[in-house]
Design goal:
single chain; mainly alpha; rod-shaped
Amino acid sequence: MDETVMTALIAAGAAVSGGALTGVFTLAAARRQATAAWAAGERQAEAAWEAGRQQAAAAWDSGQLQATAQLDVARRTLTEQTLATQRAVRRAAYVTYLSRADSAHQALAAWQGAIGTADETRRRREYDAAVGALAEPLNVVRLEGPDAVAAAAENLRDAVALNIPGTRHAVAQEAFLSAARAALAPA
């Protein structure tokens, strides 16, 4: 065998073994790249999963805050409506009571002016009926309250019913009005 053939065989062997060795290294590099790509994909998937979880948690928290705020607004509105209704009911009770107390005071004045006349008995009956008509609205005022207004209403009734001359009625009426205004004032 001649030297050229030997050189050609060595060159061919070197080419085949170099190609095989390059293939092995290329395969190893491809595996490393595939493993690295897989790991990067897993990290991206985990990051996307975590971001999605955080967004869902934030949306949940935001929803909870909105629901709490809406409940708070609803509670405040309901409380304001309840207080407004309570004030309206109290106002109606106070006006009715004040009207009846004024009627009783006028009946008292008419009766006192009729003393010694033929009208005295009729006027006395009208006065007694007017004082009796104070009972029902006084009970409503007591029920609706507050206590300060109920006490002022009782004092006004006493000023009319006790038949005490002087300014007691005016003082009792002013005390009732002051207590009623305070109770009707918005909190």
